[in-house]
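Project outcomes to date are best conveyed with an example. Our students and postdoctoral researchers have been running inverse folding experiments weekly, and each run begins with a structure described purely in tokens. The record below, which covers 738 residues, was selected by the lab manager from last quarter's runs and is presented without edits.
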């Protein structure tokens, strides 16, 4: 009936009037059906083929042979200059798809795609995960969506939810750590925030894109039950919470099939078991077929050389692809646009951006996400610390950000560190936002004599530190898409620098700006270590506020820091060649290889428990400037397993505790099942109840194709400062199976 109505409109009215009539149908499913049925086959096919939203011809410089042909072209007419572009179908009111890279802000790779365009730089997603604060994650997404909308982008390639299985993965800073519940909740909340601004968000990269080495060719191997209980569970939670308009499938193979043509992933799990209504887009260059990919569940081919979907019309005419499958793919795209409100509230360039308000959101994330790893009483800086030496890390200029397609060029300017870089690598060199920790520290401590040394000469820096009340060493390690780390250490001799300064002055504070765990051979020589991640737009002031005690640190580690690579499931990264590391992976030639996952579902801290290995710092670890006590733990079973306890601030100042509930089902490792972020004044007590997420109490039964909760004894633990290894209270329940 609705289809006949739309057809009549198109025959008897102007096209503008037809588009207006379509908008009167309020239900997104009905509106999508009407719009897609009003399209021709060619128009439907047009929605399924994404062009690169930028072209490198505008650079006017010779391009390396490693640059794909799809990136050499001129920017398409109508494109804003970003990751991807699909022209509008104006006849029926379908706007152009303007896609921008995201997660850390509105991306602008290398700053050359949209010259001079800047955006608010959020801290690393690891910092967002370290907050254990889904409400703050939603606020970060809201800020990102508002800024994208004001710049004219209606699709954000955000929502990185891949679990940290490889702590040397160069892209971990874009993701939310190693735990499926935490990653799913944080990323899902961020996606919901983005889409609340009428901008579609993806979740990515579906799935098991756990390392950058050989990401185009490697085969991730993991059995179905373990996959369902770990990485797929993280995606399921993120999709359930965020309702993303699109899912981006990954480059790698999974159990032999490319992710973007995996019938198991796309057809059975995503669109079948989870009944996902949105569309599946490939990662850039991740499509490997036409009819098989469409049959498996791929709906849209993103830019790549030799695009398969260019032959879609001919494949339909030959009967290889049905018109119904084309319509379904187009419908999914259009439905998401209606469901998110993209069509009713279209994004247009030139919108108003409240830079100050957005910077405040970025600063809140940085403040809440910094993790105090060690403190022997050096922090917060005492009023009596009048001579302070700040060393290294470009702290006099700014703070580091992660590199790759998610790169944000922050408001206020930036500089790049081009050490050891040339060609395209120089263009994609590590970016520092001009937010100086040194300047911020001087502003907060005008009473102190604060000197700076660039750290280039460890002996000189140590001599300067020896006469200081406190020495603060800033250490940085760039991470970027396409390249895994050679080793989990600090580059450019910074380990030797810290060791020298710490030996000269035990009241040394180390501030780490890294996107991954690092080893710390100097740990015993320093008084405090603050993990600042990549701290974003106002990273300098945020770091200074935590160091001086204006704000008490409250972040907790979203990933385990190993004591050495021998503790990892894969001590050596499969396929890794230190001489074949390329930004974005461009030009890196790698033969196909397998990546087995012997840890199964026991990712991160659960692997360490299984192996009885002691990490350097555990998942969930984080200190603050006060102390907390737990008492009166009581557990409740049945349909809703929960733990109730009394939490008391036993220290001298207000602080925030992240109380963590871990549950060990019968015969299984313990896993995070819930948490509570609680702020208390000195001496204040509060009764806290944490309800376990039921998905973390069950195991997946492959034969039954269902989740089962085993009968038997369930151990409940409440963890605090040292996270998953500091389980201060325990209770047990006997549960029946279900």
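After processing, the design step wrote out the following sequence:
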């Amino acid at each position: 009936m609705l289809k006949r109505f739309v057809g009549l409109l198109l025959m008897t009215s102007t096209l503008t009037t037809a588009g207006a009539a379509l908008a009167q149908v309020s239900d997104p499913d009905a509106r999508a059906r009407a719009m897609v049925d009003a399209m021709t086959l060619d128009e439907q096919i047009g929605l399924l083929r994404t062009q690169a939203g930028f072209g490198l011809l505008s650079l006017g410089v010779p391009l390396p042979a490693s640059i794909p042909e799809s990136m050499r072209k001129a920017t398409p007419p109508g494109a804003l200059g970003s990751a991807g572009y699909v022209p509008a179908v104006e006849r029926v009111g379908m706007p152009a798809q303007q896609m921008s890279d995201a997660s850390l802000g509105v991306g602008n790779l290398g700053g050359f795609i949209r010259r001079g365009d800047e955006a608010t730089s959020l801290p690393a997603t690891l910092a967002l995960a370290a907050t254990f604060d889904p409400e703050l994650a939603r606020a970060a997404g809201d800020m990102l969506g508002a800024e994208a909308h004001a710049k004219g982008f209606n699709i954000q390639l955000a929502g990185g939810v891949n679990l940290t299985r490889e702590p040397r993965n160069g892209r971990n800073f874009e993701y939310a750590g190693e735990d499926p519940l935490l990653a799913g909740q944080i990323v899902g909340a961020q996606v919901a925030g983005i889409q609340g601004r009428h901008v579609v968000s993806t979740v990515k990269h579906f799935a098991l894109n756990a390392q950058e080495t050989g990401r185009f060719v490697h085969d991730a191997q993991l059995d179905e039950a373990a996959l369902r209980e770990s990485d797929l569970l993280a995606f399921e939670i993120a999709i359930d919470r965020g309702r993303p308009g699109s899912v981006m499938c990954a480059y790698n193979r999974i159990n032999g099939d490319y992710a973007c043509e995996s019938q198991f992933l796309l057809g059975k799990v995503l669109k079948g078991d989870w009944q996902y209504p949105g569309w599946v887009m490939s990662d850039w260059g991740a499509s490997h077929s036409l009819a098989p990919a469409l049959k498996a569940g791929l709906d849209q081919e993103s830019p790549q050389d030799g695009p398969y979907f260019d032959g879609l019309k001919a494949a339909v005419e030959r009967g290889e692809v049905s018109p119904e499958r084309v319509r379904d793919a187009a419908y999914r795209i259009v439905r998401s646009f209606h469901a998110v409100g993209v069509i009713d509230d279209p994004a247009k360039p030139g919108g108003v951006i409240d830079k100050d308000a957005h910077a405040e959101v970025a600063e809140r994330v940085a403040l809440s996400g910094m993790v105090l790893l060690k403190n022997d009483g050096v922090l917060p800086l005492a009023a009596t610390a009048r001579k302070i030496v700040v060393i290294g890390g470009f702290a006099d200029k700014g703070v580091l950000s992660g590199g790759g397609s998610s790169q944000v060029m922050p408001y206020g300017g930036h500089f790049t560190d081009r050490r050891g870089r040339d060609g395209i690598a120089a263009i994609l060199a590590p970016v520092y936002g001009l937010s100086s920790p040194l300047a911020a520290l001087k502003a907060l401590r005008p009473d102190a004599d604060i000197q700076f040394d660039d750290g280039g000469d460890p002996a000189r820096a140590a001599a300067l530190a020896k006469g200081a009340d406190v020495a603060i060493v800033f250490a940085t390690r760039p991470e970027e898409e396409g390249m895994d780390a050679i080793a989990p250490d600090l580059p450019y001799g910074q380990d030797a620098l810290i060791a020298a300064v710490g030996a000269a002055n035990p009241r040394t504070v180390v501030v780490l700006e890294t996107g991954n765990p690092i080893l710390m051979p100097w740990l015993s020589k320093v008084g405090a270590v603050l993990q600042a991640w990549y701290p974003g737009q106002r990273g300098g002031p945020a770091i200074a506020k935590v160091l001086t005690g204006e704000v008490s640190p409250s972040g907790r580690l979203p990933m385990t820091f190993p004591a050495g690579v021998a503790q990892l499931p894969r001590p050596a990264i499969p396929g890794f060649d230190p001489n074949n590391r390329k930004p974005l992976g461009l030009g890196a030639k790698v033969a196909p290889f397998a990546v087995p996952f012997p840890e199964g579902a026991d990712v991160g801290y659960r692997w360490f428990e299984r192996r009885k290995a002691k990490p350097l710092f555990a998942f969930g670890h984080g200190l603050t400037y006060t102390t907390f006590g737990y008492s009166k733990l009581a557990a409740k079973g049945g349909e809703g397993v929960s733990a109730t306890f009394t939490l008391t601030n036993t220290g001298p100042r207000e602080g925030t505790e992240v109380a963590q509930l871990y549950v060990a089902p019968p015969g299984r490792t313990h896993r995070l099942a819930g948490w509570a972020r609680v702020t208390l004044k000195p001496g204040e007590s509060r009764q806290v109840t944490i309800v376990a997420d039921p998905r973390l109490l069950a195991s997946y039964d492959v034969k039954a194709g269902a989740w089962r909760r085993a009968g038997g004894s369930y151990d409940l633990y409440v963890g605090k400062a040292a996270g998953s290894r500091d389980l201060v209270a325990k209770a047990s329940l006997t549960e029946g199976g279900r």
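The CA atoms of residues 118 and 409 lie 5 Å apart. The chain has a mean pLDDT of 93. The training component of this project remains on track.
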